[in-house]
Amino acid sequence: MGRSPNRTGIGIVIALAAATVHPVAAQVIFGSPADPPRIAIGGGAFDVLPNSNRADSRATGLALAEYRFGDVLWIVAPFVGILGTGQGAFYGYGGIGFDINIGERFVVTPSTAVGYFTRGSGINLDANCEFRSGAEFAYRFENLSRVGVGLYHISNAGISKHDPGAEFATLVLTMPFH
Question: pTM for the whole thing?
């Protein structure tokens, strides 16, 4: 156990050294004011961490579509979307996110949303009002389209008697909408 603090200290020193070697290459900028509104389409898996104690909890495919308005309020970008699963679940939602640009090409977009959920034959999230939080990790091409991976959690945030929640992962293609 005596070695862990040393490893942590060495890791911090290495991280600080790497961050100072090429400060321009590691430039972080918040928001994407030059990017136009975008259409996002994607697919993936819903309930990717199923609960073995629940018969209705099992991974299933999903498809989604979103309209992202672009930076409307400072760095904040609203969006609306729909998601459907292979077990008949539907989630219509709206929310906000913001871009964290790492260099010119890599973008991390944390977001949060609220919407209406119907379960189909899949996991019972115990409420129709569900909240989504997570982030998308994307590569931005020269033409401003993006390809990325999204990781999200959806739950009723305790507004119902039970709050089982579920996680989902997506592969997303985002295209500028001019």
Answer: 0.82
